[in-house]
């Protein structure tokens, strides 16, 4: 069973929105600080084409960390798991997404997983295509295909704002360059990474991307396999184990849906074989996840028994 009632979804949003006041909009990327903490929207997209939504679902958000799942899929398609997992591991960290702490604990240096910044920077480094521009020209059409919208583009203001202030990510990159995990110009990599994070989507588009992962890589309209099944499954597994940063364990227990969040307040959910979810709620909890968005997923999961473990 699944939620097909717009009025019920409206009620859920109304209740979940009351939690936004306990969160805070991210402002370490200055341009993200302009978001409205009270915003909350959700779209649920089904394989049969139906889409139920509530809130201002046309409003755009930047992908931020949600882009990590998408670049991982692209890089796994480019290079295959054997090569990719030489450079990045498969284990959750229990640390904040931008932590540098565990990088020193492995020899040779290897970020623990592709969903933390250190691992994602390696994955972005591994996108095939040479220059940052060429790699981005492969990544953007891939996102457009997943979202089924060729007009998807970058929020340049947010990309620039992150590029100018990304000292911690630069530190991670230089550490990895010192250990020869990354071997390109760091400014070039930061340019690509910050553009990747600033790709803009609506909740409707995010739900469409979530649906492709839910369907093991199959495009719901054309029936085409746009991500190989084994790679889509692998990405979903990372969503379960590491998708909500160091809150992934609690999220799996309470909600049980493969999901990936971003500091813009987006959450992409992929209920296996059933539907894709796109949420936008920029007020974040102390781990950096949308506080009202998590509440909304909790209510939906409980009401419709969506946990993959139930
Ligand atoms: N662009 C952000 C960063 O690297 C993405 C982090 C996130 O969404 N958690 O800091």
From TrEMBL:
E.C. number(s) listed in UniProt: 3.5.1.2
Coiled coil (UniProt feature): none
Listed InterPro entries: Beta-lactam/transpept-like (IPR012338), Glutaminase (IPR015868)
Molecular functions (GO terms): glutaminase activity
UniProt superkingdom: Bacteria
Residue sites binding substrate per the record: 65, 117, 162, 169, 193, 245, 263
EC primary class: hydrolase
Reaction(s) the record says it catalyses: L-glutamine + H2O = L-glutamate + NH4(+)
UniProt KW Acetylation keyword: yes
UniProt entry keywords in alphabetical sequence: Acetylation, Hydrolase
Similarity annotation: Belongs to the glutaminase family.
NCBIfam families recorded: Gln_ase
Subunit structure: Homotetramer.
Protein name: Glutaminase
Name of encoding gene: glsA
């Amino acid at each position: 069973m699944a939620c097909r009632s717009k009025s019920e979804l409206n009620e859920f949003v109304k209740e979940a929105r009351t939690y936004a006041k306990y969160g805070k909009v991210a402002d370490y990327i200055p341009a993200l600080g302009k978001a409205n903490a009270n915003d909350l929207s959700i779209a649920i997209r089904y394989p049969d084409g139906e889409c139920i939504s509530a809130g201002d679902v046309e409003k755009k958000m930047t992908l931020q960390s949600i882009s990590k799942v998408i670049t991982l899929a692209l890089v796994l398609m480019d290079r295959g798991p054997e090569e990719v997992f030489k450079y990045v591991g498969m284990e959750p960290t229990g640390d904040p997404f931008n932590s540098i702490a565990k990088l020193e604990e492995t020899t040779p240096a290897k970020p623990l997983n592709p969903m933390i910044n250190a691992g994602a920077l390696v994955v972005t480094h591994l996108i095939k295509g040479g220059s940052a521009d060429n790699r981005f020209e492969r990544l953007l059409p891939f996102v457009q295909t997943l979202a089924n919208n060729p007009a998807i583009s970058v929020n340049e203001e947010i990309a620039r704002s992150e590029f100018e202030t990304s000292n911690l990510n630069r530190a991670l990159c230089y550490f990895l360059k010192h250990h020869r995990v990354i071997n390109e110009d760091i400014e070039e990599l930061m340019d690509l990474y910050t553009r990747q994070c600033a790709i803009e989507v609506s909740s409707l588009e995010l739900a469409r991307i979530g649906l492709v992962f839910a369907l093991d890589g199959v495009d719901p309209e054309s029936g085409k396999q746009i991500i190989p099944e084994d790679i889509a499954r692998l990405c979903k597994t990372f969503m379960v184990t590491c998708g909500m940063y160091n809150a992934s364990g609690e999220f799996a227990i309470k909600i049980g849906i493969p999901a990936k969040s971003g500091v813009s307040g987006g959450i992409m959910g992929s209920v296996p074989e059933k539907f894709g979810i796109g949420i936008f709620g920029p007020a974040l909890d102390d781990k950096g996840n949308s506080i009202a968005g998590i509440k909304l997923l909790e209510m939906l999961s409980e009401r419709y028994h969506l946990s993959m473990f139930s």
